[in-house]
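Moderator note: this is an archived Q&A kept for reference. The question asked for a predicted structure of one protein chain; the sequence and the answer are reproduced below.
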Amino acid sequence: MSDSPRTAPLRPALLASGAAVVCVSLGAAYALHALGGLGAAAGFGIAAGIGLLGSLFAFGTLGARADSRVTELDRLSRAGHEALEARTRVMQAVAEATPLALLFYSDTGRIVYANAGARELFFEGGSPEGENFLGLVAQAPDELKRALLGESDELFSVDVAGQQETYHLSRRNFELDGEIHTLLIVRQLTREVSRREVEVLKKVIRVISHELNNSLAPIASLVNSARLIAKNREHLEKLEHVFDTIAERAEHLSAFLDGYAKFARLPKPKPQEVEWRPFLSQFAALYPSAKISGPDQGRGWFDPAQVAQLAINLMKNANEAGGPASSVELSVKPEAAGSLSIDVLDRGKGLSAEALQSAFMPFYTTKERGSGMGLALCREIAEAHGGRLSLRNRDGGGSIASLWLPGRTRPAQLAASRARLTLTRG
C-alpha cells in the first residue's frame, strides 16, 4: 500500500516508535525474567505495544489517526518501561537486603549479578560484574573450588583465618536467550552448626545416661539377688545364671562405650605411599556388585588403614541407601599437586535438607538402628588428613559422598579475613 503525501512523512517515525517498544519491552522482560518474572503491567505493555504495531502494519491506516497512535504507543511504552523499572528496583532491593550470598553468571563464566552478600563474601566488597567467575574460582583452594563448581546442593566447611566456617550452597540453572546461566546461593551456617553441636552434647549426655542406667540397674539388682542366694545354699545353682546375666550386661556396656571412645581417641594418621591396585582390590572383594574405578598405576599419600575404614563406611551407607547394589560406585581420581578425590555414589533415596545439614553430627542418624557415629568418624579421619568430606544429592536420584585429600605438600590456607571466601586475592 502506498503512502499518501500526508502520511508518508510519518512512516519513519512510526517504524522507529514500534521498534523502540519492541526493544524496550523485550529488554525489560529479559531483566525481570532474570530477577524473578514479569509483572502484570509489564506484560500488558508488551502485549499492547506489539498488538498496536500489528494493527498499524496490517491495516496501514495512517491518515489523521497516525498522530494519536504514535502518542498512544509512546504512552504505553513509557508506562510499561516505568512498571518494569519499578519491579526491577523492588527485586534488587530484596536481593541486596537478603543475608544470603547471590551470584548469577553465564555459561561462559561472565558474572551478571552479585548482591551485597556475595560481594562481601567473595569479592571483599568490590563489584565483580563482567569478570569471569570460572577464572576466579580456578585460583581458589581445592576444597572451595570443588564446592563452587559442583553439580548440586552441598554442605561444606572451609578453614578461614584459622577458624572453620560452614556453608550451605545451592545452585540452579536457567536458560536465557539460548544460553545457560547459573544462580549460586550461599548461606553461612557456622552459628547454626555451633548451636546444633550444643544440642548434640546434651543428647550425648542423655544417651549415655540412659544406657548406663539400663545396664547398671539390672546389675545392681542381680548383685543383691546373688547375696540372697549365697545365704540360702539350696539355691546356689541359680548363681551361674545370675553371673552370666551380669557378664552379658557388662559386655554390652563395654562395647557401647568403646564405640564412642574410638571416635574420641582417633589416632593421628600416619600417611605413607599407597599403591592403588592393592588398595582398591579390597573394596572389590567386599562389594563385588559395586563398580570400582581408579588409576592402575601410581601412588597416593595417606594412612591406608584409616582411609580404607572411611571408604568402607561410605560404601556401607551407599549399599543401605535404597538403590540397587549394582548402582554403587567408588571412584578414585588423582588431582594436581598429588591431591586426590574419592567419590562414593549410589542411586538410593537421596538426602533430605536436614540430612545434608546434620549428617556429620555425632549421634545424628536416619537409620532405625544406626549409632550416628559412622559419618562423624569419617569426617574426623578426613580432617585429620587435612582433607574434606562432603555430601550432596545426584541429578537423577541418589547421593555422592566426596572425600578430598591433599598430597604431601598441602595447599596454602585461604589468605582472607574471617567468614570470607575471597576469590579476588592471589
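Archived answer notes: The chain has twelve helices and twelve strands.
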